[in-house]
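User: Reviewer 2 asked us to show a designed sequence for the structure in our supplementary figure. I'm pasting the structure tokens here. Could you produce the per-position amino acids so we can include them in the response letter?
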């Protein structure tokens, strides 16, 4: 019989009384202490962990998109492409998480739904920041954050910044020697498809080798929105599977509201040009 393996024999550090450990670095005490179910229902822990991990992924999305926007302004396209590809993969992770939540049945959810009160994912300020950063800027969505002035200010500040798509369109202008109308760059309303922008992106798609950087940028944006749309769609089907057509805990119309959100296009010109190629 062999002796039990002792990592110390291979030089592994085993005492952390004076040094930073894995748990210290990651703040595990705070992280694992943040799950506080308000009922005795078994599945409430699943619901909490699902939404907390989603918020952590969204924090990383914001980190990546803010950096991508700054780098795009500086003309550092290669680094931008890597970040946008990473964001698309993060949305894939978020998408897969719905499969776990769908193991919760309607009967399971009803055992703790009352504990949620009026709280709802609709109130996620990080989700709203992501939408604003990408260009879907609806001021009406800010009212729900008025009770948290610091969050409200964060959203207000984002509306003073060009969206990621605005910065991409500036690159398109520079690459083609064009200038779009000022209405294309409205700061605090959702971006609306513009014929001149469709025409400009069409030039790029008809000559990919001649405009490779712009072509790759366009496809990275389409990839990102593609995964984002799938995430929204899986959200709808998960909610419908669990609560049917009941109203959401936050007072929205639930599935009806979420289906309306499926119609939102972040980068509409990149989708509309395809039929004309």
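Assistant: Here is a per-position design you can include in the supplement:
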């Amino acid at each position: 019989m062999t002796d039990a393996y002792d990592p110390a024999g291979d030089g592994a550090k085993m005492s952390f009384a004076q040094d930073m450990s894995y748990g210290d670095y990651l703040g595990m005490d705070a992280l694992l202490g943040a799950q506080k179910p308000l009922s005795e229902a078994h599945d409430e822990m699943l619901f909490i962990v699902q939404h907390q991990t989603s918020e952590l992924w969204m924090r990383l999305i914001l980190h990546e998109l803010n950096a991508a926007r700054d780098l795009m302004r500086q003309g550092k396209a290669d680094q931008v492409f890597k970040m946008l590809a990473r964001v698309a993969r993060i949305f894939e992770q978020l998408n897969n998480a719905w499969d776990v939540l769908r193991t919760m049945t309607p009967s399971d959810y009803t055992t703790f739904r009352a504990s949620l009160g009026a709280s709802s994912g609709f109130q996620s300020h990080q989700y709203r920041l992501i939408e604003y950063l990408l260009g879907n800027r609806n001021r009406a969505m800010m009212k729900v954050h008025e009770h948290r002035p610091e969050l409200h200010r964060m959203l207000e500040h984002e509306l003073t910044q060009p969206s990621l798509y605005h910065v991409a369109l500036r690159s398109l202008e520079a690459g083609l020697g064009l200038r779009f109308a000022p209405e294309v760059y409205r700061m605090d309303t959702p971006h609306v498809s513009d014929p001149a922008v469709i025409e400009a992106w069409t030039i790029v798609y008809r000559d990919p080798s001649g405009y490779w950087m712009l072509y790759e940028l366009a496809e990275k944006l389409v990839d990102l929105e593609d995964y984002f749309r799938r995430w929204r769609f899986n959200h709808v089907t998960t909610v419908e599977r669990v609560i049917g057509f009941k109203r959401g805990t936050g007072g929205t119309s639930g599935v009806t509201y979420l289906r309306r959100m499926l119609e939102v296009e972040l980068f509409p010109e990149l989708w509309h040009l395809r039929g004309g190629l």
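For the response letter, you might also mention the following. The chain has a mean pLDDT of 92. The domain at 41-276 is CATH 1.20.58.480 (Methane Monooxygenase Hydroxylase; Chain G, domain 1).
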